[in-house]
Amino acid sequence: MSSHGSRRKVSFTDKIEETLIAVILGLMTLITFANVVVRYVFNTEIFAPVTVALGLPTNLLWALEVTLILFAWLVLLGVSYCVKITAHLGVDAIINMVSPKMKHLMAIIASAACIFYAFLLLKGGWDYWANYANLPQTTGRWFPTGFEEKFLGKSWYETNDIGMLPMFQFIADWFNNGEPYEKMPRLIPYTVLPLGMGLLLFRFCQVGLSVLQGKRDMIIVSHEVDEEAVAKAAATIAAEETRLKTSKGGSD
Q1: Where are the domains of the chain?
Q2: Alpha carbon separation from 129 to 11, 56, 59 (Å, rounded)
Q3: Is 14 helix (H, G, I), strand (E, B) or coil?
Q4: First to last CA, the chain
Q5: Which tens digit of pLDDT belongs to each residue from 210-228?
Q6: Taking the model in full, what pTM does it have?
Q7: Burial profile 20-52: b = 16 or more Cβ within 10 angstroms, e = fewer
Q8: Residue 196 has pLDDT above 70, yes or no
């Protein structure tokens, strides 16, 4: 069998978060570096004449807001990515005390609770973002029972400092009645709310299916401190206490 045939095929869904997180980290690094160069190099006495002559910027006003938005995307997408790679913290003190059948049952219950929680987050994320995209929020307190018939569209809300690139002005025809945006509409950065929570729900459903199929008995990996490290720490503390008692006895 060739090496290519032995490799596991990685689906697109397995790479969604990894690709987006890599792009976001790259953009955050590039924008922050560019802003530092513009502020602390272009404004120096040496480069000031060149900056004025070439009309170079002396400050990227939009850099901070873009970085904050990208960081929010990084966090919300990272939640589902950590579920996929089992990077969330877990404590197995209780489940290791029960029988394998009970452990499997507890994993199913935990998976169901996580799916329910992710579903609530998805509903909340959609309801917060929807009006910014001229879409209706869902009705119902816990579960969506429909869509609101009357709502106030907020697609005209813009960000504070991020300019709207001309190549994306077609969005104005879709959401702003053809009126061009001066700044980026908030519906674009807020898209991460339903997207991120949808990915979280998808990952928890994958985990729940794996638990039902018996492929795993925990939804996360335990990250407790190992017993050897705890024993070493306890021995160090005991030795220090003994030394202190001995020194006190000698001084008396």
Answers
A1: 10-222
A2: 28, 36, 31
A3: helix
A4: 78
A5: 989 888 877 776 555 445 5
A6: 0.77
A7: beeebeeebeebbeebeebeeebeeeeeeeebe
A8: yes
**Rounded-to-integer distance, Cα 81 and Cα 202, Å:** 11
Distance CA 20, CA 33 (A): 20
CA dist., res. 243 & res. 225, Å (int): 26
Alpha carbons 190 and 124: distance in angstroms, whole number = 12
The answer to whether residues 218 and 108 touch, using CB atoms and an 8 Å cutoff, is: no
For the chain, what percent of residues have pLDDT higher than 90? 44
Give how far Cα 127 sits from Cα of 113, 131, 201, 202, 213, Å: 21, 7, 16, 19, 34
Query: What pLDDT score does 4 carry?
Result: 43
Q: How much is the pLDDT for 191?
A: 95
Contact 92, 222 (CB under 8 A): yes
Residue with tokens 């104005």, as numbered in its chain: 172
Q: Token digits for 126?
A: 């959609």
CA distance 114 to 205: 9
| DSSP H helices in 41-62 | 48-54
Confidence of residue 5 (pLDDT cuts 50, 70, 90): very low
Strands 183-185 and 158-163: antiparallel
Q: Is the dihedral of CA 159, 162, 166, 168 positive or negative?
A: negative
Q: Which pLDDT value is given to residue 3?
A: 40
As a 3-state breakdown, the chain gives helix, strand, coil percent values, each rounded to 5, of 60, 5, 35
CA 138/CA 122 separation, integer angstroms: 11
- As given in the structure block, the two tokens for residue 174 are 């879709």
105 and 98 Cβ atoms separated by less than 8 Å: no
**Positive/negative CA dihedral, 184, 186, 190, 194:** negative
If you average pLDDT over residues 197-202, what whole number do you get?
Answer: 94
